[in-house]
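Let us practice reading a record.
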Amino acid sequence: MTILRTLLLVLLLVPASLYAAPSQNIIASVGGVPITAFELQRQINRVLPLKVSYHGGVSAEKVNEIKSEALDDLIERGYKIKYAIDNEISVSADIVDKQLEKIVKRFKSRKEFEKAVGAETVTGLRAALYRQLLAKKAEEQVIDAKAQASEDEIRAYYDKNKHTFFMPKQFRASHILIKVDPASNAEERKELKKKADELLKRAKAGEDFFDLAYYNSDDRTKFVGGDLGMFHEGQTEKPFEDALKAMKVGDISDLVRTRYGYHIIKLTQVNEARQMSFDEARQKIKTRIEKERRKKLYAAWIDSLKQKYEVKRFVE
């Protein structure tokens, strides 16, 4: 790396204030790489919706817990950034500018964007984006390439665990639903049962099932003639599945009662349970191997960086 490039990288990543007394906006650093209050707030905003229930409020204790976790995440990111600097990994200015432009486009004007950025300044935001992209690139280079599973590994895994890769029995069916409200009274249920019986007679007499569903079903599948698509064992209500298992393709069931109401079912396709081929299982195996390998590689990498780089916290 040239001296000029090194100086530019330092100026972009580490504000001058970090070499003297830390500014009020720098709350921590990892090996000299700053973490700002603005970055912390953005991280909290990302994490908060995942940690708080839709209807629940946020206690002061929960806020502090989220803040602590968000800072830990940024410190972990800081390790990756410092690693990238030490190993001369960089991100082109064009990529940073494109990322910044995506943010700008969320606003009605450049002036509105700059107002929203406020005290962080556009330069500060750009530097934060650079650090974010740099951490991502470092992780890709160190972890992703090493986590790749070879075809031989995938095949060996399949051969060893073939018995676990089974496609369950699948059905395809259409239905007509006459919905029964649990709060309905005996008289209302009697009328609904009568309606279902009449539709059943018409279906068994050979009337077009698609049209019967379209004009009479209370289920949203009515718009596709009651077609439920493909589904496997265990995905439907037990009375519904029991009826399917007793039918042959083309059969129309008697009335089937579930908690939703009365169903008239037409079985249109059955695929028996079978062993999955290697090609069918390949992607699932690849994902499984790489996920486990990536987890181990990542943990080892972060542990090594923790031993190497010093963390300083300027606020509690």
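A brief commentary: The CA atoms of residues 195 and 225 lie 18 Å apart.
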